Amino acid sequence: MFVIFEMCSSKNGVAAREIERKYDLTPKAAWFMLHRLREAMKRDPIAGLLSGRVVADESYYGGKPSNRHGHKRGKGGQGQTDKTPIIALVSRETGEVRSRAVPDVTGENLARVLGEELDAEATHLHTDSARHYGPIGRGFASHEAVNHDAGEYVRGDVTTNHAEGYFSQLKRSLDGTHHHVSRAHLDRYLAEFDYRYSTRKASDTERMQRLGQQVAGKRLRYRDAR
Predict the structure, then answer these.
(1) What is the pLDDT of residue 81?
(2) With the CA atoms of 157, 127, 199 and 42 taken in that order, what torsion angle do they form, in degrees rounded to the nearest 10?
(3) In angstroms, rounded to a whole number, what is the distance separating the alpha carbons of residues 89 and 96?
(4) For residue range 44-72, what is the model confidence (pLDDT) as tens digits?
(5) Which end of the chain is more exposed for a tag (fewer CB within 10 A), N or C?
């Protein structure tokens, strides 16, 4: 219960090493406990589609290969990256965010994610001017974009600032609290930050109570039970 409260009340999250130290746990127990709670933070699989004004944007998580030991310029080095793309959808109506890591940013991947999360006929899509969004936007009730290349970040009611604010907090937390997150577990960390962002207007106590109701039945197994 103490750990649940810490995860719900800490804006930047809490590291497994800190939980290990505070509660005299083994590293494995602390790490597993936090991942089970992150699993519980995932939204219900049958949650409805987002609609109304929705901001869509993408960002990348991970360090620059050029900063790593042994990096070589030229083929396979300069200009190459292995950062993980993350797509975030933020409802302007409810404040809910839904983020997801994808293999790469392509029109096909963006269309798939938006199609799975948004009610196209009832959604007014706000994006930047990335070329992928043009064809996708034609399938929505409306689509408007701001042109960052021209220094445009807000035009009337159209902006991507909500998603960019989410990414800013996410990266500060991942880098400052966890330092490194592997791609294999990134989706659970995204579920944690989605949960806190989507419930940011609730009190810490309300956020904790809600999570307590979601924990039951959430199990993680990294090897088959015998």
Answers:
(1) 63
(2) 160
(3) 8
(4) 776 799 999 999 999 999 866 565 555 56
(5) C
- pLDDT of 226 reads 55
Do the strands 118-128 and 158-159 form a parallel or antiparallel pair, or are they unpaired?
Answer: unpaired
Using DSSP bridges, classify how beta strands 118-128 and 142-146 pair: parallel, antiparallel or unpaired.
Answer: parallel
Do 106 and 86 belong together in one domain?
A: yes
In this prediction, residue 76 carries a pLDDT of 47
Using the Cα atoms of residue 131, residue 100, residue 152 and residue 173 in order, give the sign of their dihedral.
negative
122 Cα distance to chain centroid = 23
Whichever domain contains 115, its CATH number is: 3.30.420
**Is 225 within a domain?**
no
8 A C-beta contact, residue 31 and residue 196: no
pLDDT digit string, tens, across residues 78-90:
445 678 999 999 9
Q: Which of helix, strand or coil describes residue 125?
A: strand
CB 103 within 8 A of CB 203: no
Q: What angle do CA 196, 198, 203 make, to 5 degrees?
A: 60
Residue ranges making up the domain that contains 13:
2-41+182-215
On whether both 139 and 55 belong to a single domain, the answer is: yes
* One domain, residues 56 and 157: yes
Indicate if 93 and 29 belong to the same structural domain: no
Residues of the chain with pLDDT under 50: 75-79
φ/ψ (deg, to 5) at 151: 80, 15
The model's pTM: 0.86
